[in-house]
Specification:
- The chain has 754 residues and is an alpha+beta fold.
- It has three domains: 317 residues, alpha-galactosidase from lactobacil brevis (Beta-galactosidase, Chain A, domain 5); 299 residues, Aldolase class I (TIM Barrel), CATH 3.20.20.70; 116 residues, Sandwich (Immunoglobulin-like).
- The chain has 13 helices and 37 strands.
- The strands form seven sheets. Strands 6, 7, 8, 9, 11, 12, 14, 15, 19 and 20 form a ten-stranded antiparallel beta sheet that branches. Strands 28-27-26-23-22-21-29 form a seven-stranded parallel beta sheet.
- The radius of gyration is 28 Å and the shape is globular.
Length: 754
Amino acid sequence: MIEALSKSIFHLSTDNTSYIIRILETGHAEHIYYGRKLRDAFSAVTGMSEKRYARPGMGTYTDRNFTTLVLDDAKLEFSAEGRGDYRTPLVAVSRGKDGERTLDLKYAGNSIKEGTETTKGLPMPQAKDPYNEAETLSLVFIDSLRHVELTLIYTVFPSSDTITRRSVIKNTSDERLVVRSLASAQLDFRETGMKAITLTGTWGREFEKRETLLDSGTFVSESRRLVSSAEANPAFILVRKDGSAYVLNLLYSGPHRASMSVTEHGMTHIIWGINPDMFSWVLENGESFESPEAVMTFSENGVEAAGDRAKMFITTSILRSSWKDRMRPLMLDTWETLRFNTTENRIEQIAKGASEMGVEGILINDGWFGTRNNDRTSLGDWYVNTQKIPSGITELADSIHRRGLLFGLWFEPEAVSVKSMLYKSHPEWIIGRDGETNAEGRHEELLDLTRYDVQDWIIQTIVRLHELVRLDYLRWDMNRHYSDLYTLSGIRDYGMYAHEYTSALYRILSEIGRRCPEMYIETSAGGGSRFDLGMLAVSSSISPSCLSDPLERARMIANLTLVYPQSVIGTVVSPSPNSATRRIVDRETRFNISAFGVLSYSTDPSSFSRGEMKAFKEQIEFYKAFRPLLETGRFRVVENGNRIIWTVSNEDRSTILMLYLQKMIRPNTTAERLVVPDANESYNYRIFSRRHVVPEKEVYAYPEESECYEIPGDALKWGGLSMVEQLSGIGHHEGMRMLGDYSSRLYIIRRIDK
């Protein structure tokens, strides 16, 4: 709900939060408050507004009638250059031939409307009912001397306790305006000592959780690539000293920056949006530019509660494909089995075994197209390799469909191999001057998506193939970062390129989704380099990493679920030893970890023994039985040390699944205790483990176990369950738990009546 409490005070409220803005006498927008919902916002403003009887030393005042107002020491809704605010600006421009940078933007009016305000080509959140579930406030600021207009747009989504923000700048002068920076949102706090939680990393080590104390100076989390990046996810969390938390994100898949500064006056200044180092935008008279949407969620109950609200917002307002409210398909990916040796005979063998195994579809990965036998050729030649698949792609798809399986294909549509028919036909389509002199990544070049002919070619290629074979599942991959930025697409300024590229990507995927509404689209970018809200607005799920090592995936899942729901996180059960780390992890543990997300397999069922097939079938039957809970339940990380404990529970806590994962055996241990914070205190529970199927050759060393316990909910929540001891070097006794290194159990906790 949005209320104009007076001509100068605006209260944005959700079910549980309040956000208050006041327009000062000088025409600047003061940030008063963002936090727990206030019962009387209007009365609170007088007490919370800063008084300003004295000017800070060396402070520059912007208005001679208000000499104690120094913008550099004010909590503002936006900062700009040239009038005494020396902090990182939300908006920065160069104007005219002289490149003047000063902006003196003053309040000029507002509008309040039901629903959301549409954007120009960028993804945006959607309300359940656009007229009843969202309201939008637009605040307009004008520099009348320089003829520049800035509009701040706030949309309130009450039921998910979320507020979104974006900025729009317009040139109303006769001179050219170059926008050097236009961030999406700014938050100012009159405090220090906040903690920033960011998800950092690199390829194969995506989503490492980093905690940074904001006590002095500037901390920056950013991407300088054409993707949101594995190095710095756009989502971050601010934790105050009292434990309350803000989950902040950006609906964007390109280069971004979050700048977090503590000023000399003890203020924490947060700016996030498009990375200004990768951006400039030329505006002629009458033209405007809109930033991507920033997303803000708050809870006074800490990180978990704020994360729950952020995840609810994603599932209700960001996801929009036809799969949004459906269980995700359980696919078998051919990559770890076949690599580039994709042949019709092997695919048929795998499909036969997959059908028996119980998976729901086959994803044919790399190697099915052009003359692709390695990673040096054929990207861009998206026609079937008839030497490998002599019956043709249509007959292969029909064969897979006849088995009752979905048919999926891997593509890397943004890339082209220099050794390809596409490159020979259109060498001008790549980014850079030519494929011989460009810096090379993964033996491939990037197509210039800012060209409309390239966009249309990608759309038509995938749509035609979908019409030909009924393509049920599309994996969109991207494995190369840009270099040698040069384009013939007519862009006025190279600072416009990264945003134009990102906007083109949205257009392509949106159009494919519109023309193929039933097709499931999974996105990937060398693994987790585009795990962001922008991609979730145009796809159904995202692969978090190319690395399939289960222990690394466990870390990724735990950290991603701070701010993203399990229903968008792709997981995989791959062979052991792992192809990258060579780590050996037992079959049941590989499943137990991967079950917490959108499960897939990358194994060869045609090579399974009878016992192996039985074990994998039991895994899949279990997953299908609990899939709604595993994909959409309330996820919690209870412990994260040598033993990792997760829970996922349904709404009334009558069913809870618990992962118990042990990294290393520790000798001479005794009794263990398991606490389940999400247990309902008024229930009684029975706890038993999913049957742990041990390979025949290991039965002697690891005999089958049968655990079952009963305990009241309050005891489970506050006291914990004492478990049977593990074997730990002092001899085996019947009934003991037998866990090795990198081993696990999956426990079912169910309400019982007594």
